Amino acid sequence: MHQKLTATKQCLMFGLVATCLWACSSNPAPTDGTGGSTSTGGATATGGATSTGGATATGGAKSTGGATATGGATATGGATATGGATATGGATATGGAGGAGGKVGTGGSAATGGKGGSGTGGASSTGGSSGACSNGATASPCPPTDANSVAYIGCSMADNIGQGYGQVKGTIMWNNSGYGTGAKVVENWGPSGDAWSLFATKLNANGGKDKVKALMVQICVLSTHSEDNVKAMIQAARTHVNAGTHIYLVGQPQYEAGHTCSLAGAGGAEWTDATAKKMAADSTVNQDLTYLGQFKLDTTKGESSDGCHASASGLTVLGNQAKAFWGN
Question: Which of 24, 87, 156, 234 is the most exposed place for a label (fewest CB within 10 A)?
């Protein structure tokens, strides 16, 4: 009895297993088992726009080539990368107002020449006027600009300056025509000096006192070196021009180092220049008085005829130096 029940249970279990095996090993329904859009093939699995090829995978605008990857305005060339206003050239990098030329760059008052610019050239660098006055004059304060508005007194050295100034077509300061101040040193220009009659003749020929706005007073000496005589000369000069007429004080021409003008004696020319500076800095001498600067001659270049006076070439040198002081 027990054996039969066991056999029966075994049979039932075997049957269930067999039924399960048959069910699991059977093929699916025809629509899913044999083929269809998903398992075996179709747009997605075997081929189609995405898997096998299409715009994205195999080629197309982005992968193989296109505006960005292979070339285009940005990557291979274009206004910015290869050239353009900034990178290769343009107003800033290669040239323009600040770089190669213009007010600041190459030209102008301050650089190579002209009145423009502060970069490579301009008023103050290679060319342009060296003075602060509107006409380029270096005298301080700025001198008047009218013709014959600057008078002068002095000796034959001053006469040389006036002659050279006329030869180079200067117009602001007097020239020596009809004047002639030869041998008139400091003592001749004192309060009772005999040189003032020459001055009066030249003054009247050039329009009188009202025409003269400034006066160049040259300290010129022989063997006598007296500061008191120089002060007396300056005071006398003040009385022969209108009040407010500025006086520019200057010494005899200066020479190359080691040279002595025999007429003034050893150290004489240097003394006149040093005294001009000293008097101009002393407000007790005169309130409206400044030091003009130096006239210079180089005897080694043939600019002097006798070691003191200007030669023909020296006259041109002095005339051009006067033009630099007055601006014309």
Answer: 24
